[in-house]
Amino acid sequence: MSKIACVMTDMFEDSEYTSPVQEFEGGGHEVMVIGPEAGKEVTGKNGEAKVKTDLAIEDAKPEDYDALFIPGGFSPDILRADDRFVHFARHFMDQDKPVFAICHGPQLLITADVLKDRKVTGFKSIHMDLKHAGADFQDKEVVVCHNLVTSRTPDDLPAFNRESLKLLK
């Protein structure tokens, strides 16, 4: 099955990590959490989920993974200030590998400059950012554009998980 890189730091949206990971692992896929430091516990913004990172970004090679998962919350905004995460995310888009980004997750892709002419969705507060990045914004629960699956909020998780798993087959 697929090996999925999940890029994340503190302040991720708890359910936007836990629900997809449960579905991915239930489908036989492996999820590796990549953060600024290896072995560091990162905490969701609601304090419900605590996750230990598997690898530090400097030790992660994007070519070792089949797909990229970017949970929402404030984490993607923090990560996009670090060029290592930006380059890591860009690799997946450039190589047409599956990328799953929910809520604020597309912020990392905006900074990676890979959304021009792509159909995408995201949390309400980033709609204009997506449009300014050249994306074709769609206000739908899930948008699939070639290798990219995006959704808006935790309410969209069933559709996000379903479409993400389809891309992994």
Describe this structure in words.
The chain has 169 residues and is α/β, with parallel strands linked by helices. It has one domain: Class I glutamine amidotransferase (GATase) domain (Rossmann fold). It has helices spanning 14-26, 75-79, 83-94, 106-111, 127-132, 157-168, and strands at residues 3-7, 30-35, 41-43, 50-52, 55-56, 67-70, 99-102, 119-120, 136-137, 142-145, 148-151. The strands form 3 sheets. The protein has a 7-stranded mixed beta sheet with strand order 5-2-1-6-7-11-10, sandwiched between helices. It has a two-stranded antiparallel ribbon with strand order 3-4. Strands 8-9 form a two-stranded parallel ribbon. Helix 1 runs parallel beside helix 6. The radius of gyration is 14 Å and the shape is globular. The mean pLDDT is 98. Residues 3-166 form the DJ-1/PfpI domain.
Structure summary:
This protein is α/β, with parallel strands linked by helices and 169 residues long. The chain has six helices and eleven strands. It has a single domain, classed as 3-Layer(aba) Sandwich (Rossmann fold).
Label this structure with key terms.
seven-stranded mixed β-sheet; 11 strands; 32% helix; protease; Protease; Class_I_gatase-like; C56_PfpI-like; peptidase activity
Helix fraction bin: 25-40%
Examine the secondary-structure arrangement and name the CATH architecture: 3-Layer(aba) Sandwich
- The helix count comes to 6
Shape: globular
How many individual β-strands?
11
Distance between the termini: 8 Å
Order of helices and strands: EHEEEEEHHEHEHEEEH
Major sheet: order of its strands? Answer: 5-2-1-6-7-11-10
User: Describe the biggest sheet?
Assistant: 7 strands, mixed
Q: Structural class of the secondary elements?
A: alpha/beta
CATH topology: Rossmann fold
Number of domains: 1
Mean pLDDT: 98
State the CATH superfamily name: Class I glutamine amidotransferase (GATase) domain
What would you report as the Rg, rounded to the nearest angstrom? Answer: 14 Å
Uncertain ranges? none
| Name of the top-level CATH class | Alpha Beta
Strand content: 15-25%
